[in-house]
Please model this.
Amino acid sequence: MPEDISQIVSSMEDHMNKAITHLETELIKIRAGKANPQILDGIVVDYYGNPTPINQVGNISVMDVRTLSIQPWEKNMLQPIERAIIAANIGINPQNDGNQIRLFLPPLTEERRKELVKKCQSEGEHSKVAIRNIRRDALEHIKKLQKNGLSEDIAKDTEANIQDITNKFISAVDKHLSSKEKEIMAV
Model:
């Protein structure tokens, strides 16, 4: 029986790690005033009829603190890249000079910073909900094992262990959120 328990706990930790990784990925996409090529992740360009990630149709580079440059590998991809960025509604207007596309990130206003913090909080709440759902599933597995003959003491100890692990992951989410909030609110 203890093998089943260790398998449930390790599976739960794996899923919670994935929730944290997803949160990190989402927080990277939220810009904090500095140019970061990862804010373009998730934008797909129509590449000859196929939806293709923007980083696969051109070279994305940081020109300075507030400017990104996209150098397409084919000149005829300038318009589709420009359209994809506009359609993504990331709050940046692309500037097409005929050779490359430049993205000038405007300085963040206090109001926009607060909106971005709210967006971060929302992402964090999604992660916390996912972690709690993973905990619930693990606890249900323990209850099933208990019905099938697992002793009550072992079940209670395992449930306490599951709660400790959950608390650790929830605090990791809070740490990520507070560091991102500091990054966004720094002028």
Q: What stands out?
A: Helices lie at 2-29, 78-88, 110-147, 152-185. Residues 144 and 150 are 9 Å apart (CA to CA).
